[in-house]
Amino acid sequence: MSPSNIFKSNIYEQKLRRELNYLTNEFEQIFIRSQTHQKFERQRKYALDITIQQIARERKGHLLSTKFEQKPIQRFPKKMMVNKNILII
What are phi and psi of 82, to 5 degrees? Predict the structure, then answer.
């Protein structure tokens, strides 16, 4: 190889190394952002699940509190008599 070809080869090799380093760094940053994004999504999903469970509990509690408790029919003792609309004791 001539000195000029060796020189060109070295320059080209340096350029390829810089590109490789750049791409490696870019990949690492993308990977880190991806991991961070995945962690954020897991936390968001966890918070959403807790919120949904809380809303369900509140709705269930609200539905229970609006139910009317049916009391048994009150029976008068045998000593009491009802005369028309007047209660005689």
Answer: -110, 120
What is the band of 14 on the pLDDT scale with cuts at 50, 70, 90? very high
Q: Which tens digit of pLDDT belongs to each residue from 29-52?
A: 999 999 999 999 999 999 999 999
The three-class DSSP label of residue 82 is: strand
Indicate if the alpha-carbon torsion angle 20, 25, 31, 34 is positive or negative: negative
- For 43, phi then psi, to 5°, come to -65, -40
Burial 40-70, CB ≥16 within 10 A → b, else e: eeeeeeeeeeeeeeeeeeeeeeeeeeeeeee
